[in-house]
Structures are given as C-alpha cells and as structure tokens.
C-alpha cells in the first residue's frame, strides 16, 4: 500500500514489524553476505529476533531517531536502507544499507539512499549525513563515494570483529554539499 517506486523493478517500502517473516527469509538469503559488515544485533536468526530488529527501528521512527525501509526487487525483499541514528536537534544522522547477493551490483541501493538523504536534508533540515563502514568494505566505500560523501577519517581498531579489532571509516556529506544532480558512474 505504501510503496515508492525507484525504478521499473524496485520499490522502497517501510519495513515494519509485521513484515518479520519476510525480513527473516531475506536475512536467511543474505546472512553470510552481510554478517561481516553489519552489527551482530541486526542479523536476526529467528522470528522473534527479526521482529525485535524491526520493532527497534519502528520505535526509533516513532521517536524521530531513526528508521528502516526495505527494497523490493520484482516483488521480493532483497535489501534496504536505514537511518541508524537521526538527530534533528543536532542536525546529524547516520545512513546505512544492506543487500543480499542476488541483488548486488544492480544499482538498487543508491537511488534509495539518495531518496532518504534528500528527504533528511531538504525536509527535516539535517546538516550532516554520516556513513560509517568497516574499512575493509570496499563496496560500501565505493557507494559512499558515488553518492558524493567524503571520507572524514578512520577510527582505528574501534570495535571487535570476527578476526580481531576493526577500523571504521567515517564518511559524510553536509547539507550545502548535497548534490542537486547525482554523480555519474563510469
């Protein structure tokens, strides 16, 4: 009912708690692919934990501190975008994304990220949009660059990972830098 077409084959929809079964099925397809890059608390393993993840984001949306939307490609949930954090008072938010292997490399995520960032900057007055990623995640860094974000720096060994501590890169774009027209991909 509430879907925003991004392309002929892709829709952006709210990823509400009542979609927990569909979200879990998607995570089952995506788990190995996304596990190295996302918070362990995001990768639900059963229906209760899937519902809890979506409820956490629904609560953030209700409190104006975050949100989550799914990407449906040809009617199947294949990934999504989110505001990991959203603080209108400070004018800062953090955006994130994920996608399952079957949808990777199809240009599904960038239009969705552009849409939510554009809304945050133009409608909500966000002044700084952050993108935080494991320094080893080359696809995430390439997407941040394509979206016009700049690398601010690296937080060295900021958190534990499966093979030792990880470095986290912080990318950002400021409201007055947010592009009127997106960069072209070569």
Automatic annotation (TrEMBL):
Domain of life: Bacteria
Species of origin: Micromonospora tarensis
Domain N-acetyltransferase: from-to ranges: 10-177
Database matches in InterPro entries: Acyl_CoA_acyltransferase, GNAT_dom, Ribosomal_N-acetyltransferase
The protein's name: GNAT family N-acetyltransferase
Organism classification: Bacteria, Bacillati, Actinomycetota, Actinomycetes, Micromonosporales
């Amino acid at each position: 009912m509430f879907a925003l077409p991004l392309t002929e084959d892709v829709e952006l929809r709210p990823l509400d708690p009542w979609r927990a079964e569909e979200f879990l099925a998607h995570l089952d397809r995506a788990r190995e692919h996304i596990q190295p890059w996302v918070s362990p608390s995001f990768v639900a393993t059963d229906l209760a934990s899937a519902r809890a993840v979506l409820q956490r984001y629904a609560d953030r949306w209700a409190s104006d501190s975050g949100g989550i939307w799914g990407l449906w490609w040809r009617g199947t949930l294949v990934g999504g975008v989110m505001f990991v954090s959203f603080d209108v008072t400070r004018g800062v938010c953090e955006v994130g994304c994920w996608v399952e292997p079957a949808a990777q490399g199809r240009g599904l995520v960038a239009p969705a990220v552009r849409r939510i960032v554009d809304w945050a900057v133009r409608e909500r007055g966000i002044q700084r949009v952050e993108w935080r990623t494991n320094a080893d995640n080359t696809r995430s860094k390439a997407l941040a660059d394509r979206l016009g974000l700049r690398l601010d720096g690296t937080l060295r060994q900021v958190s534990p990972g499966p093979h030792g501590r990880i470095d986290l890169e912080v990318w950002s774009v400021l409201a007055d830098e947010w592009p009127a027209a997106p960069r072209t991909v070569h």
